[in-house]
Design goal:
By secondary structure, the chain is α+β, with helices and mostly antiparallel strands. The chain is built from 15 helices and 32 strands.
Length: about 575
């Protein structure tokens, strides 16, 4: 990257007003500082300043990946759907996946991640234990059709990810690489100037035996974490368990008097509750899940609760949320599903096994879907769904007010996920038949690990963690520039000579120090406000009054500390600041 850039020769469209579309700090400041611009919902252009910061974050990631022996490659973003169907994730990803038919009628996927694609490569190219272990990584754009893109680049439909994949002959080898990746991630986020936390997490749709998330606690975060009492133990909300009452499904439970009511185009819990003048807690959601063998089951949770798929997978390994097509083929009405058929109903799924969260067992006269589009049932009771194969238990995510099985209060914190590491084991290699020959000539499936970082999230997370009322405060390693030179009078000969001296400083050149030079003809006030907004770590102010006295001002953005230094010592003083 170019080390000296004049403001007048680049594109930094700063904004004075706060954009109405931006709800969180990082989104507001990235727009105001001219780092990004929105193209459409969930898609952003990175302008020159934002791209420089992104490239610096990438460079840190590359250095630490290569330090642990990972090899960089680049995989296609366009995938044949057949690969995803081999692992069953074509159905699991559901509507989050962007897919389309090409002109030849073949279904394609825009890659939301690359486990299937790297496994396909491995089964073609890795044949012997002598090639193992091997770790491959890429930094590439991913695509996910987020239902509600928000929070700027934190939750977008198109984003930059570093994804690495390791291949092993033994579990011990996987453990070794997993630990090395964990240490590499610590170094990456530390070098990026972030204060982060490592939590035990749910592998989710990725599968495998274990995973850890690297998170930054922030009110702008969308991931919910749970802290057990006053301990330092933190887990994802999916994994946290609560104290149960150990209720059983009541035998001979009384039936209600269900009444079918018209709820036109209202399928969400919130909309139905509002329409019927009820609370979300008065509704029961019926969620349909599929198994790898093609069968299905139901999960019932209270309307204000969410299913914990982590808990569900403990008793139904490999299960996934059924697609709209699958739900409708069973005879349920998508968005209006209920736990049983109404009179004259046609749902072939009437005999499905039902997992009922314990809280539902305490409900009476509740509301469910009627298994008919635009209709719900009121006045439903447990007796109306008796006669099915029913298993009660803990199938929901914890909420405020829950306590741990030991009685500790659960404390909730929001977080931004920065990175996630997984032990995939045989999750992809087994169904895709990615095998190698061991030392005895026996064929075995490759043992795999996976390690992801949201590279652009590093920028947003940094701004969430390091900013004030004036603007961004960049950590020096990912700042677009390290030094912001404010020329009060761009035509001043003495100021130009100082910049010439900076360009010819061998010490600054060796360390790759870079400079944004504000050579605009705007007022000093405009330049200082923009400098605070951009948040470059160190500022060199070349003002006529100080220059006449043989001085220049150096200012630290984070602390506001300013000092006057001799003009001749400006390069060495900047070097000193960069060493801090």
């Amino acid at each position: 990257m170019k080390r000296f850039v004049n403001w007048s020769e680049t594109l930094i469209p700063t904004l004075k007003e706060i954009p109405q579309e931006a709800q969180i700090k990082s989104h507001r400041l990235m727009l105001r500082a001219g780092l990004i611009r929105k193209l459409a919902s969930g898609t952003y252009s990175y302008l020159p300043l934002g791209l420089r910061a992104l490239k610096k974050a990438e460079a840190i990631v590359r250095e630490e990946m290569e330090a642990v022996g990972a090899l960089e490659l680049l995989l296609p973003a366009l995938h044949p759907a057949e690969l995803w169907k081999e692992t069953g994730r074509y159905e699991i990803m559901g509507e989050d996946m962007i897919h389309f038919k090409d002109r030849h009628g073949k279904m394609n996927v825009l890659g939301p991640t690359h486990e299937e694609i790297i496994t396909d490569l491995a089964r073609r190219e890795i044949h012997s234990y002598k090639q193992l272990p091997m770790t491959l990584y890429q930094i590439q754009t991913k695509f996910r059709d987020e239902m509600r893109p928000r929070s700027g680049i934190i939750r977008s439909r198109e984003f930059l990810m570093k994804d690495a994949y390791s291949f092993h002959a033994t579990d011990e080898s996987l453990d070794q690489t997993y630990r090395a990746m964990q240490e590499a991630y610590k170094k990456i986020f530390t070098r990026a100037g972030l204060e982060f936390f490592i939590v035990q997490a749910d592998p989710g749709a990725m599968g495998g035996s274990g995973s850890q998330e690297f998170v930054l606690f922030s009110d702008a975060g969308e991931d919910r974490m749970v802290q057990l009492g006053d301990s330092e133990a933190v887990v994802s909300v999916e994994m946290a368990v609560r104290r149960l009452k150990n209720l059983s499904f009541p035998q001979g439970a009384a039936a209600g008097k269900p009444l079918k009511v018209h709820t036109p185009q209202l399928s969400s819990v919130e909309a139905v509750a509002h329409f019927l003048k009820k609370n979300p807690a008065d509704l029961v959601k019926t969620m349909i899940y599929g198994r790898a063998d093609g069968s299905f089951f139901e999960v019932l949770v209270r309307g204000d609760h969410e299913v914990s798929e982590f808990k569900l997978r403990k008793i139904e390994p490999g299960c996934f949320l059924a697609s709209r097509d699958a739900i409708e083929k069973l005879g349920f009405a998508f968005g209006f599903s209920g736990p049983f058929c109404t009179e004259g109903g046609t749902a072939s799924g009437e005999g499905l096994k039902v997992y009922i969260d314990e809280d539902v067992l305490e409900m009476k006269d509740f509301i469910t879907g009627a298994n008919e589009r635009d209709y719900h049932l009121t006045g439903v009771n447990l007796g109306d769904i008796s006669g099915k194969a029913i298993e009660p238990g803990d199938f929901r995510q914890v909420v405020e007010g829950d306590v741990s099985p030991q009685g500790q209060p659960l404390k909730f914190r929001t977080a931004i996920e920065l990175g996630h590491i997984f032990k995939l084991n045989l999750r992809y290699s087994k169904p895709m038949k990615a095998h190698f020959l061991d030392a005895t000539g026996k064929e075995n499936p490759l043992i795999m690990g996976c390690y992801g970082i949201g590279v652009n999230r590093i920028l947003a997370a940094s701004i969430e963690q390091h900013a004030d009322e004036k603007g961004i405060i960049w950590p020096k390693n990912i700042s677009p520039f390290q030094v912001h030179v404010v020329m009060i009078d761009p035509s001043d000969v003495q100021s130009q000579e100082i910049i010439h001296a900076l360009k010819n400083s061998s010490d600054l050149a060796k360390r790759g120090a870079d400079f944004l030079i504000d050579d605009r003809s705007d007022s000093a006030g405009v330049k200082f406000n923009d400098a605070d907004l951009l948040g470059i770590p160190f500022r060199l102010i070349l003002g006529p009054k100080n220059l006449k006295n043989g001085k220049a001002e150096l200012k630290i953005r984070r602390t506001g500390e300013a000092t006057l230094v001799d003009i001749a010592s400006v390069p060495s003083e900047i070097n000193r600041l960069l060493d801090k």
